[in-house]
Amino acid sequence: MLSLKSSDKRGLAGLRKGVGKVINASRFTREAKVDPQREALLVFFRATGGAKSYPNSWRNKTNWGKGFADLDKWYGVRCDAEGNVTHLCLSNNQLRLQGPDAELPLGVFDQLPKLRVLDLRANRLRGRIPVDLASCTELEQLSLFNNPGLKPP
Fold this sequence. Notes:
alpha/beta, 4-stranded mixed beta sheet, two-stranded parallel ribbon, 2 helices
């Protein structure tokens, strides 16, 4: 049978506290995985007024930017089995660019290489279509009509 002196018990309690601190500290040192698709969609969301409050916001922005919701739970987004964004369908959703000279941000579509359907028709988009849309080599359907002021790259 193992017996501990009172001084050993205090040392053991201190060790437990110390281990607890190390374990608790490890929560804060984990590296968060950055999903480039999520980040790109959030840039698009902010640039097109999604983060504004109603009535200057999107009509439907369910789950956009909400914690760690899977992308395919975001309104208008569909993903394949590997988690790649394949559809972005936000037609008639009050997307609008902020500021008189604002344009759709570059770098969004670079991060969505598996995109097959992009439907942004019937919104309030203007400016030039981003040239990085060409990086969506699997794009099958592109609907941008009824966006007064939207111009080719």
